[in-house]
Amino acid sequence: MMLLDNLISLLPELNKAFFETIYMVGISILVAIIVGLPTGVLLFVTDKGLFLENQVFKNIAGFIVNMIRSVPFIILLIALLPLANLIAGTTIGPTAASVSLSVAAIPFFARIVEQSFREIDKGVIEAAVATGATPWIIIKDVLIPEAKPGIVQGVTITIISLVAYSAMAGIVGGGGVGDLAIRFGYYRYDNTIMITTVIILICLVQFIQFGGDRIARVVDKR
């Protein structure tokens, strides 16, 4: 009974933490799509043997993407606190944490997009080039439609990764479910809150994966 009373008393905190997590992940995935999708396209089309081949750009962009991806998120989170302060005006809270989450998500999603394009039959791309289609037309009408299921799955994987990263943001007061787990579950040794936050995160990830799989099947016209 005491456990139930404890949970009920923390419902406002749980509700706030859940929507902070949704807020952080929402901003980050939006930025990842806006910046990461074009980056992934450019990483692919500038590769050797493709219609916008540019090895210098490919190598520089690839190095930057790999460099960001190689930094553990918790270190990236702390290293980008000055940038978060510059953009959000603060180093704590979900908005500030969204800066680091976005920076981590962009190269992650870009590589998934690039890989999705690599799964396209090269004959389809060669046929489009042979008809005299412009690079923009090839990207818009051939690459993206053909890779759509892979891109949707990539969005799903990125969102799930961001949910996990957002939990780590609690270490620097980023808010969200992770912050709640640390403040109430870890520092106060409250196993009930810790288990509850874990269950919330598991349910959220399952829901995201289920929705992503359904959408990927709908857009797959192959």
From TrEMBL:
Keywords: Cell membrane, Membrane, Transmembrane, Transmembrane helix, Transport. GO terms for biological process: D-methionine transmembrane transport. InterPro entries: AA_ABC_Transporter_Permease, MetI-like, MetI-like_sf. Its main location: membrane. Pfam families: BPD_transp_1. It is found in: Cell membrane. The chain crosses the membrane at residues 22-45, 57-80, 86-110, 150-172, 192-212. PANTHER family: ABC TRANSPORTER PERMEASE (PTHR30450), D-METHIONINE TRANSPORT SYSTEM PERMEASE PROTEIN METI-RELATED (PTHR30450:SF1). This is Methionine ABC transporter permease protein.
